[in-house]
Amino acid sequence: MPKGATLERIAGPAGALEAIVIEAQVPLRGVAVVCHPNPTQGGSNTNKVVQTIAKALSRQGYVCYCPNLRGVGASEGEHDYGRGEVDDVRAVAAHAADRHGALPLLLAGFSFGGFVAARARESLGCERVLLVGVAVGKYELPTPAVPEDSVVIHGEDDEVIPLAAVMDWARPQNLPVLVFPATGHFFHGKLLRLGLVIARAFK
């Protein structure tokens, strides 16, 4: 767990959810909920991309909630392939609002977590959306999927979610995609740069 982070138990619709909370490192300007990749392939809130996203956003004034969604880690319930997980995100966002007040909400996610964030955005008023390696083609994303000023980041050599699939999804929405050259799905060797790019995008 990152230095200075805390663990919280949050009441969810399928039972208690555990979340890593990373406080804002500068004056508080918003709340971010950061969703993890597919748990059937080992994804959880300790994933390096998830933590990179959260640390970058915390440097820009967001308090970041990184929940283990239902059935992951010590979170109760069972994995629901993105359906019930949307309700989990809503519960975490409501908990954050109770704790911090009516601050702008940012939804973020990596891979499967990007799908969950995009789906949760349909029923949550959120300021912006950040999708990294979003699982286009693996799950049905809503259309229009995300706000026009959303930040979409993808690796050129993503071996899990082909860049071409993401471009086909983004093109009808006229949604820009920031491409990391010679980079795979997990941003190996590029995490520092990923954090810097995210920090600049949400400055």
Task: Describe what this molecule looks like in 3D.
This protein has helices spanning 48-58, 83-100, 112-121, 163-170, 191-201, and strands at 6-12, 15-22, 30-35, 62-67, 105-110, 128-132, 151-155, 178-180. It contains 5 helices and 8 strands, in the order E-E-E-H-E-H-E-H-E-E-H-E-H. By secondary structure, the chain is of the alpha/beta class. The mean pLDDT is 94. It is 29% helix and 23% strand. It is globular and about 40 Å long. The chain has an 8-stranded mixed sheet, sandwiched between helices. Strand 7 (151-155), helix 4 and strand 8 form a beta-alpha-beta unit. Helix 1 runs parallel beside helix 5 and helix 2 (83-100) crosses helix 3.
Characteristics:
203 residues; eight-stranded mixed sheet; 5 helices; 8 strands
C-alpha geometry? globular
| Structure annotation, total helices | 5
**Rg over CA atoms:** 15 Å
Number of strands: 8
Average pLDDT, to the nearest integer?
94
Helix content: 25-40%
Sketch the major β-sheet.
8 strands, mixed
Q: In percent, how much strand structure appears in the residues? A: 15-25%
Class by helix and strand content?
alpha/beta
Gap between N and C termini: 25 Å
Contiguous uncertain segments of 5+ residues:
none
Give the strand order of the largest sheet, numbering strands 1, 2, ... along the chain: 1-2-4-3-5-6-7-8
**What order do the SSEs take from the amino end to the carboxyl end, as H and E?**
EEEHEHEHEEHEH
